[in-house]
Amino acid sequence: MRKVSGFLAEVAVCLAAAFFSVSAVAGGASGTAVVAIHEEPVTLNPILGPAMSYATLVEQPMFPNLFRIAPSGDLTPDLATVVPTKANGGISQDGLTYVLHLREGVTWSDGKPFTAQDVLETWRLIVDPHVRALTTEGYSNIAQGDAVNAHTVRFVLKSKYAPFLAACWSNAQSAILPAHVFQPIGAAGVNDASYNTAPTVTLGPFRFVSWNHGAAITLAANPNYYGAKPKLSQIVFQVMPDQNTILSSLQAGSVNLAQVGPTQVTTLQSDRNVQLHAFDHTSWEAAAMNLHDPILADVRVRRALEYGIDRKAIVEQVLRGYASLIADAVVPSSWAYDPQIQPYPYSPKTASQLLEGAGWKMQGGVRYKDGKPLELTYSTTSGNPGREETEQIMQQELGQIGVRLNIRNYPATVLFGDILYHGKFQLAEFQPTGGPDPLLRIARADSCHAFPPEGANYGYWCDPRIDPLLNENAASSSRAQRKKIFREIAQIESEQMPYLYLYSLKAIVATSQLHGYEPNPYGQPAWNSEMWSVP
Amino acid sequence: MLPFVLRRLALSVPLCLGISIIIFCLAHSLPGGPLAMYMNTSTITAGQLQHVSAQLGLDRPLYLQYLDWLTRALHGDFGRSFSDGRPALAVIWDRIPATAELMVCAFAISVFLAIGLGVLSALRYRKLADRVVTMLSYAGISMPVFWLGIIAILLFGVQLRLLPIAGIGTPGQPFSVLDNLRHLALPALVLAGYTAAQQCRYVRSSVLDVLGAPFVQTARSKGLSERVVILKHVLRNALIPVVTVFALDAAHLLSGALITETVFAWPGMGRLFYDSLHAGDYPVVIGIALMASAMVILFNLLADVLYVVIDRRVQIAWA
């Protein structure tokens, strides 16, 4: 009897040891990097909407484009052999014709060759009305595209468009699809193609292995990859909806990379195994002001609001310093940024003077005009502690200059799908995502032709000076010239305040036992995944 | 017995139909809706949006959308997910094994703990063991699941590094039962802890009730051993009211699973429901809601049937 129980005890100890084995807790399988994603992508087809940054994060290691945007913002050749310029003859003197030379000897992960037809088919699908394209911006400006030979493509544009290469053919925006897979499907079948959830034919350093919905997307090194041989054998994107679980997993070493927010940094800073990378990004935080609203139609009120908020204090207190103040829509990470245009300082005095000038007189702590109080409603996405804290500070500070600020927040889908889209707001804060070229976002946010539903000029701001400048910018091929035009646009924005410009949030990427990661404001964290390795 | 079960099942058909109308209307009256995520794409134009709306069939009157949905649902087609275009049933089906695994394990652990500790507590009434169990169960009832989950993660995952804290298996490794069980341990215990704490109270008071009953005194005075008295007389009678509570709790585990699945990144149905609701993915939302309703109906029926099985005195009234 005693022998038997002794044996059973031994078995129990062995089982427990296996169950609680410490080594298996850290990281994934050998040669595997685990990236935590907060939300699950809807599709892995890079040309399809809706826009979700987590989808791009997963797609980038599988889907290269003709050019890759380096951390400096410059284009570098990827599937193309050279960046076309007027000097090298790649761009015609009139700026309308682009000749793109493609790499030879590149094969898709199924062994079929990569050719000019793949580039042309990608363009045709994106502009086809049947396809729920992520964006047609830039592609719809192509008048004609043809293959000069198997590895040379020529595009003729309808009008000059400076961001053409960055907007259409860089890794920041979209990617090339295999023509031999999509031609049999046809444009009408693209939205529901099985390829969208299992993209088995790709070109990048990693290829698709599996997608366990709700759990993880697994990629493996692509032996056919044309570039540097990937150092990892697998990348697993693990879906972790809870931010605390992501932090704990980084600390436990079971996640190698995750994007985190400024308030979570404190938890990770003390951990020696976790490295934090904070850098300026292309997106910015602003509140659209609805110019259809009689109070906000007055530029003096809009400027007073910007003067009346201590944004520097908000950045320090709420965002722990992980943001840069902005004066307009050109963010500090951009080549077009001009430090000469300064953000408004915090000046309740100037704000009060502006409001007085606009006829809003103080009566018992609140300003009135024609018997009506200066009362505004401020909205943003609900459930975002940083934004809610910011709102409370604003409410208090604006209260001091006699502006009564009411807060009414909505879930993200409601804010974007209804409130902003249909102009049912006075002030609405959100984060317009940046693009690879500043023109993309500014044209969408500022042009008189970009009122919803056609664009994202949610506040209906229309300054007659803006559109000619945007056109001139698009037609200019010199960066110096374009920078000058951006400065003029920025000056008008700063003077007219169509948005309450807040700050440009820094991106914070946390890595744990991962080598080779490099911050890139223009790419998702996995933009250089072939260089990654784990110990 | 069989006619009773069949009658109850037949009654559940109009019930499900009514539920489906309510859920369909509720889902469609939510602000935002399935187009919201497309409108969020700042580059989309009005024409594209109309096209998407027509493709998803959202431009028709609501009653037509419902009738259309119902006809297809009766043929086993719940429509396609607005999010990723896969059939809604396939999307749900994908997540059932994970939720079922979590719920069955959590339920088993919870029943085991509740009966064991509840009986112990009642037998040691007002002694140390009773007080400890009572304290633990009150702590369990008052602690939110997500908080218990975070504490478990910090203790077992980060500090002691004994157990994995997220997912259903080690990323990048082929499936193995041991690995899967290791991942199951924390979420199942946390989910079980929450329900066990409540059930334990029911068991305790039910056992206490029966212990004072005259037939227990009779059994004892007949000279039966304490073991027989407890197992054959007390427990059997004490469990009758408890069974109903347990069966209903099994259905409610689904809502607890939502939070547990989120905290432990467990790829189950609860999380799918939450995500779909957020994305306005009606076909999936309606599918899951109907499935959950069906579960509640089934477990109610199960409770009634078990009642009869355990207690022969209960007769089913047919009229």
Which short descriptors sum up this protein?
heterodimer, A: 535 residues, alpha+beta, 6-stranded mixed beta sheet, 4-stranded mixed beta sheet, B: mainly alpha, 76% helix
Give the tally of β-strands of chain B: 0
**Mean pLDDT of chain A, nearest integer?**
90
Unreliable runs of chain B, pLDDT <50, ≥5 residues? none
Shape of chain A from CA axes? Answer: globular
Q: What order do the helices and strands of chain B follow?
A: HHHHHHHHHHHH
Low-confidence stretches of chain A: 22-27
Give the % helix of chain B: over 70%
Report on the architecture of this protein.
The complex is a heterodimer of chains A (535) and B (319). In chain A, 29% of the residues lie in helices and 19% in strands. Chain A has 535 residues and is of the alpha+beta class. Chain A contains 15 helices and 21 strands. Chain B is globular, with a radius of gyration of 24 Å. Chain B has twelve helices and no strands. Classes of the chains: A alpha+beta (535), B mainly alpha (319). Chains A and B meet through strand 9, helix 6 and helix 12 of A and helix 2, helix 3, helix 5, helix 7 and helix 8 of B.
Q: Would you kindly provide a brief summary of this structure?
A:
The complex is a heterodimer of chains A (535) and B (319). Chain A is 29% helix and 19% strand.
SSE map:
The complex is a heterodimer of chains A (535) and B (319).
Chain A: H1 2-19, E1 32-37, H2 53-59, E2 67-69, E3 75-77, E4 97-101, H3 116-127, E5 142-149, E6 152-157, H4 164-169, H5 179-185, E7 206-212, E8 216-221, E9 234-239, H6 243-252, E10 257-260, H7 265-269, E11 274-279, E12 285-289, H8 299-307, H9 311-317, E13 323-325, H10 348-357, E14 361-363, E15 366-369, E16 372-373, E17 375-379, H11 385-400, E18 404-407, H12 412-420, E19 427-430, H13 438-446, H14 466-475, H15 479-496, E20 499-505, E21 507-512
Parallel strand pairs in A: 1-9, 17-18, 17-19
Antiparallel strand pairs in A: 2-3, 4-6, 5-6, 7-8, 8-9, 10-21, 11-21, 12-19, 12-20, 13-20, 14-15, 15-16
Helix pairs in contact in A: 3-5, 8-10, 13-14, 14-15
Chain B: H1 2-29, H2 36-39, H3 46-55, H4 62-74, H5 88-123, H6 128-142, H7 145-159, H8 177-211, H9 214-221, H10 226-263, H11 269-279, H12 282-310
